[in-house]
Write a structure and sequence with these properties.
The structure is a single chain. The radius of gyration is 19 Å and the shape is globular. It is 55% helix and 19% strand. The chain folds into two domains: 100 residues, GMP Synthetase, Chain A, domain 3 (2-Layer Sandwich), CATH 3.30.300; 62 residues, Ribosomal Protein S8, Chain: A, domain 1. The N terminus is likely disordered. The strands form two sheets. Strands 1-2-3 form a three-stranded mixed sheet, sandwiched between helices. Strands 4-6-5 form a three-stranded antiparallel sheet. β1 and β2 form a beta hairpin. It is built from five helices and six strands; from the N terminus they run αββααβαβαββ. One of its GO terms (molecular function) is RNA binding. This is Single-stranded DNA-binding protein.
């Protein structure tokens, strides 16, 4: 192995260790939150696409956890930001941690991928750009990925919270 390869491998391991540390800090924070709220839930940690991913799941069903998701994921978004702040407080580094509760984001990701694929099909068929409704940054990212997978281009336009995806012809 060359010195550069060793360094790159070490850097990759350091990144994984840092992301695992973020997951641990987030899990501790969320466990405390669940205790305070007197909610049952298990914490699952992973590293996906160069970011820590933490999920709260429940064997008792998702009814109680729905309170932590809120209408259209609003509470989930707020909890994700609070969890990122807790990680930042401990590490001093900005976190891109992704939080899922009761499978809400996984289900949303699937629906958004389908929306992106349908919009791409429409653009391919008509040759005209398609503007989608305003979305959160997470939602836009999923749609951009689906459009790229369909072989088209897309861009975001507008200002938060009215920022939206435009699917463009090839």
């Amino acid at each position: 192995m060359t010195e550069g390869t060793t360094s790159a491998a070490a850097e990759g391991a350091d990144t994984l260790t840092r992301l695992e540390q973020e997951g641990e800090i987030a899990a501790d924070y969320l466990e405390g939150l669940l205790d305070i709220a007197d909610l049952d839930g298990d914490i699952d940690m992973d590293v996906e696409a160069d970011r820590a991913s933490v999920s709260i799941i429940s064997d008792a069903g998702t009814r109680d956890l729905q309170k932590l998701v809120g209408r259209d994921g609003e509470v989930l978004e707020a909890l994700q930001e609070l969890t990122r702040l807790a990680v930042h407080r401990e590490t001093g580094d900005r976190s891109r941690l992704m939080l899922d509760i009761a499978g809400y984001r996984a289900k949303k990701r699937s629906e958004l991928s389908e929306l992106g694929a349908k919009a791409a099909a429409e653009v391919k068929s008509t040759g005209e750009p398609v503007k989608l409704k305003p979305m959160t940054p997470f939602e836009r990212k999923v749609v951009h990925d689906a459009i790229k997978a369909a072989g088209l281009r897309s861009e975001s336009e507008g200002e938060e919270p009215q920022r939206f995806v435009v699917v463009l012809p090839a």
